[in-house]
Each structure stands twice: as structure tokens, then as C-alpha cells.
Design brief:
alpha+beta; five-stranded mixed β-sheet; 1 helix; globular
């Protein structure tokens, strides 16, 4: 009862069609807890991609509850935190 639910995924939503992605986002946003995603910049278009932090075109958008918090490289090679807006 004291646990916090965290849904985490990395580079998996690209394998779903746009409608399936939209259903997933709708479902995960209704859950109590937190949603942590690491996906390519075009996969979750409702997440505003930050361009004020240096990033590489291969970087993934790390988002917490639908808000970008960092740029990350696949396989954990690097992370660049984005400043609070």
C-alpha cells in the first residue's frame, strides 16, 4: 500500500501504431504514480521537446509524467538534464 507505481519504458512505443500509442498514453496517464519514458523525439508528440540543451540527433527524450527532464543516449551511455522551465 505504501509503494509508488512507476511505469517505465525505453524505445518500445515505436513498435506500436499511432492509435495504439495514443491508447497507451491515455491509459498510463490515468494510473496513480509516475510515468517515465525514454523514446525518440517524434514518438510521443504531446511531449514538448526541449532544444535549449545540447543534444545529438540520436538522443532520446527522457520524460517524467509527460514532461521532458533530460536527453539520454540509448543503453545509458549519457544523460544531459534539462533545466526547469
Amino acid at each position: 500500500a505504501d509503494a509508488t507505481l512507476v511505469v517505465f519504458h525505453t524505445v518500445v512505443l515505436a513498435y506500436l501504431g499511432e492509435q495504439a500509442r495514443a491508447r497507451f498514453v491515455e491509459a498510463v496517464r490515468t494510473l496513480p504514480g509516475h510515468w517515465l519514458s525514454a523514446e525518440a523525439r517524434s514518438i510521443l508528440p504531446d511531449i514538448a521537446v526541449r532544444d535549449d540543451v545540447e543534444n545529438d540527433s540520436t538522443d532520446l527524450v527522457l520524460a517524467l509524467d509527460g514532461e521532458q527532464i533530460a536527453w539520454v543516449q540509448p543503453h545509458g551511455r549519457s544523460i544531459r538534464w534539462t533545466p526547469n522551465p
